[in-house]
Amino acid sequence: MTQAGTSIEETNNDIRIRTSLIKEIYVDQYGSDSDLLNEILVDIADLYQGKWASHQTCQTGYHNLGHALDVALLTARMIGGWNKLKDADHPKIGGDLFLAAMAAALFHDSGYIKERGDDTGSGGKFSFNHEARSMALAKSYLSRGKWRNRSLELVAGMISITRFHDPLKIEGIFGSQEEEVVARMMATADLVAQMADVDYMKRIRDLYGELKEAYEFEGVEKLESKGYKVFSSAQEMIDGTVGFYENFVLPRLKQLGRMDQYLVVFFGDGRNPYLENITANLSDQLFAKRNSWQRLGEVLKDLGMATKDQIQKALDLQKQSASRSGSSTRSLRNDIIAWMEGNLIADKFLGEYLMDMDVISPPLLRKGLLHQILPTKMIESMSREELTVLLQISMLWQKIGRGNWLFTQILEMSNKLLNCEGSHILLAKTESQEMLVAIPTSPENDRQNSQSFPADKGLAGWVFSHGHPAIVSNVSEDERFDSAIDSNLHGKVETRSILAVPLHINGERIGVMEAMNKVDGKFTEHDMNTLTLVANIITVSLESVFRFQGKNS
Predict the structure, then answer these.
(1) β partners of residue 505
(2) Is the pLDDT of residue 546 over 90?
(3) Sheet holding 508-518, edge to edge
(4) Positive/negative CA dihedral, 117, 121, 125, 127
(5) Contact 103, 40 (CB under 8 A)
(6) Nearest one of 400, 461, 406, 396 to 428, comparing CA atoms
C-alpha cells in the first residue's frame, strides 16, 4: 500500500518483497516453484495497476494491491505453520490448495476495482457487494488458465466467507478438512492483516472515504434497514477501534478456529509479530480518557504503589484540571519546542497527579504504565530482549504528550538497550540556526538541558545537515567532533564515542538523536539500526500528538 510520503519506487519495492516472500514459502513447502503462482502474482498486479483491458486502475486507498498481497502472504505463512506440525491432526496442505488459497487472497477485494467506462466514484460504492464481484472476476480469470475445475468453486467459496457484514457460514461449502482449513486461514488473514498494518489507524480515514461513497450510492436508510452500521465520520470509526476488535474481530477469529495460532509455529520462538503490531495499534485507543486512568489506578493499587484514597484524590484533581483547560493555535515545530521547554498546556493524567503528590516516582509510574500496557504473559512470550524493550518504548510513546518525565524514562530505557552512558535529543530552531538540547540523560543532565549551539557545528550539526547517521568510535580521531561544544554541553564528562541519527517528520528534518559512550566495545551498525528505530518511534509519536492537539485546539 502506498503511504503518505512514500515514493512509487519504494512502494513497488515493497510489493516485490512481499511477492518474493510468497514464492519462497511455496518453494520451501513443495520443493520447486509454480508457474501458476508466478503468473497470477504478475496478473493481479497488472489488474490493480490498470493494465487489464476490462478494468481501470484501482482507485480505493484502503482496499488496494498492498492489502491483497498482505492477505496472501499471511495466508501462506499460516499454511507454512500448519505444515510444520506434521502430525495426524494436521494433514499436509498440498500445493493445489496452497495455490487456491493464494488466488482467493489475491482476488478477494478485486470487486472494488471499477470496469472500463465506469466514471462514477472511486470503487468504494461497491463496499457492500464487492465480494460477489470479486468471486465473479476470480472465476472468469481462473477459467481461462490451467487451473483445476475444482479451484473455481473453491476460490469463490473462500472469498464468500470474507463477508464480514454477514454471519459466518462455512457448512456445506468445502469438500474436505484441508479445504476448510485454508478457507478459514484466508478469512483470518483478511482480518489480521488489516488490524496489524503499521498504518492501520491512519488508513481508517481511507476506509471511511470508501464507506462514505457506498453510503451515498446505496442510501443510508436502505443500509440501516438491512442492519448495517453507518458511521458518521472517520473519527467515530477510530474511536470505536477497540470495540470493533473486542466485539467483532476476536469473536470472528474464534469462529474461524484461531488460525492465527499457526503464525507462532511459522515464526518460531513463541512469536507472533502480527499480534505485536495489533497490540501497538490498539494501545493509544486503550488509553482513551474515558476509561484509561481508572484502570491505571487499579494497577498501581494492585502493585502496592498507591492507596485507594490517594488514587481518588488524584482523580479529583484530574477532573478539576479538565474543567479549566484552555487552547491556542500552534504550529507543529513550535509545539515541540514549547513542550520540550515545559510551556505546552496539557491536562495531566492520574499518574502525574500521584507524582505531584509524592506518592510515586517516575520510575514507579513507568512500571505501572508497563503493567497496564503490556501484560506480563505477553512479555514472557517474547524471547528477544531488544524487541521487548522496543515494544515497551513504542507503547509508552503513546503518552508522550503528557510531559518531560516520560521522555526521560524512555531515553533511559534506550540507554540500557544500547548499553551506553547517555543520550539526548537535539532539535533544530530554524529561525536562529541553532540546535537545542532537549531532554538529556547523562551524568550531567542539568548542565545539558536547554543548552544550544550552532546548527552546523559538531557531529550533530553534520548529521543534521547531511541527513545521514554517524558512528564515531574515537572522537579524538574524527574531525567532525567539536570539543568546545562538547565541553560546554557535558562539562567534566568525557565523551569517548558517539552514535548519532537524524530525526525526520514527514520528510522534514527536525533534529538529531545522539547516544554517547558505549559501555563495552564500540557502537555497531546494529546499534545504529536500533537507535534509528527508536528515533522513528519518537518522531511518529511527536507528530501524531501535536497534529492531534493542533487540530483540536
Answers:
(1) 508
(2) no
(3) 452-454, 434-441, 420-429, 508-518, 498-505, 470-472
(4) positive
(5) yes
(6) 461
Give the residues across from 499 on adjacent strands: 471, 515
Neighbouring CB atoms inside 10 A of 173's CB total 16
pLDDT tens per residue across span 126-162: 999 999 999 999 999 999 999 999 999 999 999 999 9
User: Which pLDDT score is estimated for 431?
Assistant: 65
192 close to 278: Cβ distance less than 8 angstroms: yes
In order of 105, 107, 152, 165, 168, the CA distances from 110 in angstroms are: 10, 5, 16, 17, 21
Q: Give the Å distances, CA to CA, from 284 to 320, 379, 394, 411, 443.
A: 24, 18, 10, 20, 32
Phi, psi (deg, nearest 5) at residue 453: -155, 165
pLDDT at residue 111 in the model: 97
In percent, the amount of the chain with pLDDT more than 70 equals 72
pLDDT tens digits, 474-527: 888 887 888 887 776 666 678 899 999 888 765 567 888 899 999 988 888 878
Cell numbers found for residue 532: 534509528
Nearest C-alpha neighbor of 127 from the set 151, 109, 150: 109
Distance of alpha carbon 222 from alpha carbon 447, whole angstroms:
66
pLDDT tens, 247-260?
888 889 989 999 99
Widest distance between CA atoms in the chain = 78
What region does 169 belong to: left with phi over 0, alpha with psi -120 to 50, or beta? Answer: beta
Distance CA 125, CA 215 (A): 7
**H or E stretch covering 435:** strand 434-441
Q: Which domains does the chain have, with CATH numbers?
A: 9-285 (1.10.1300), 292-551 (3.30.450.40)
- As a three-state string, the secondary structure of 224-269 is HHCCCCCCCCHHHHHHCHHHHHHHHHHHHHHHCCCCCHHHHHHHCC
| Cα within 13 Å of Cα(128), Cβ side | 19
- Rounded distance between C-alpha atoms, residue 123 and residue 368, angstroms: 46
Could you tell me which residues are beta bridge partners of residue 425?
A: 513
Each residue of 436-480: pLDDT tens digit? 776 666 555 444 455 677 777 888 888 888 777 888 888 888 878
pTM: 0.55
- Going by C-alpha positions, the residue among 237, 187, 248, 239 that lies closest to residue 209 is 237
Look at residue 373 in the predicted model and tell me its pLDDT.
43
Write out the H or E segment, with its range, that includes residue 516.
Answer: strand 508-518
